[in-house]
Specification:
12 strands, six-stranded parallel beta sheet, alpha/beta, 44% helix
Amino acid sequence: MKTVIIGAGSAFGRRLSIDILSRPPLSGTEIGLCDIDPERLEVVRAFVDAAIAHNKAPGRVTASTERRDLLAGADFVVIAVSIGGPAYYDKPYEDEMGIPIKYGINQTIGDTVGPGGIMRALRTAPALREMVRDINELCPGALIINYTNPMAMLTWVLNEWAEGPVIGLCHGVQGTSKELAHLIGAPYEETDHWVAGINHMAWFLRFTHNRQDAYPRLREAMADPAKYKTDPIRFEMMRHFGYFCTESSRHTAEYVPYFRGDGLGVADIKAFSERVRKNRQSWFEDMGVARSKANSLELIRSHEYASGIMEAMMTGEVMRFNGNVMNEGPGGLIDNLPPDCCVEVPCLTDAGGIHPCRVGSLPPQCAALCRTNVNVQELTVRAILDRDREAGFQAMLLDPLTSSTLSLSKAREMFEEMWAAETHLLGYYEKSCPSS
C-alpha cells in the first residue's frame, strides 16, 4: 500500500503517519510525505522515520517537495494544505479575519463560510486543481482524502475535477460524540449516534446510551449552569432547534446570525493567531491525541478516520464513519438538501470502496439552517468552476453573518478590500488566464 500526504508539514503529516503505522493490516506501507517547505518536511520525515525505528514497524518513508516525485502508484492521496500562508496566523488569514472586523463582522474561526471561508476557498481551489491534474495522470484510481477547509466547498470542487473517488474528512463527529458522552456521564463505548447534515453543521439525529434515547439527559445537562457554560451556543441551538450540532460553539457562532451581537464565541484574532503560532500541539487534541503525547514516538492512534478507511479498503473489514460526499444517487442521500451539494453523512467502507448511507430527510428546521450555508457554498463553487469573481461576491452577500450586518454597498466595499489584499493569490480568476 502507498499513501501520499500533500501538506505533510501540517499536523496531519505526523498524526496520520502514526495512525497508519499503528494498524498491523497496513504493515509494510509506503508513506510519501510532500510539503513545499523543506525544513518542515524534514522535521516530519525525521519524526516518522524515528517512530518506525523506535517501534520496529515495517514501513518506509519517502519525502519530496515535488508531489510528482511521489504520486505514481499511490492508493491514497491525503490533501491537508494551506495555500498562501499558515492556516491560522499571519497573512492571508489575518486579513480574512481583520478586514471583516473593520466592517463589524466578528468571525470566530473564518475557515468554513463567512467572508474568511469564502476567500480561503477562492485562494485554495486553484492549487487543488493542479494537484488533481497530477493525481489524474499519475494515480487516477487513488482515493483522494481531503482534510483542507473549507471542507464542503473544496470537497465539492474536488469531485468535479477528480477522475477517481473523493472523500472529505473532519473530526467534528468524533469529538462531539465524546463530549456528549461526557456530558451525560456515560462511557463512550456504551453510546451510539447517527449524524447527518453538512460539514460543521451536521446534526445528532440520534444519540443513545445502551440503545436508549439520551437526549433527555442532554437536556438535563443543559439545565446545569456549569455544563451549559462549556458549550453555550450549541446548547442554545439545541434548545431552540431541537438537535445538537457537530461543531463547537466558537465555530457555530459564525454559521448563523443569532450570536453576532451577544459576544458569545467572539475571539480576538491577534490573540488567537498568536496562541496557534506558539502552541501547534493543541491541534493534536482536535485529532483525539493528548497534547502531552503529541511528540511521542509510540504508535498512539488518534480518532481520525483516514487510517481506518485505508484498513477497511485493504482488508474488506467494514467500517462506519461520517464523511463528506456529494448528495447524489436516486433521490439523493438527504432528501431536503439540494441534489448536487456536498453533505456529511454516515458511510460504510470495505474492499469495494466507500458506500454513503441514505439518510432521508433531515428535520425541516435543521435542513433550513443547512441550506443557508449551502447557498454560500454553491455560489463559491460556481465562482471557482467558472472563474467568476462576481459569483464570489454574491456568495458573500448570502453569508449569514454578512447579510445580517452589512448593506449591499458596504458588503461590496469589504469584498473589494479583501480581494485587493489577496490579489496575488487570485490570478486564476483573471479572464486572461488560460483555461487549460
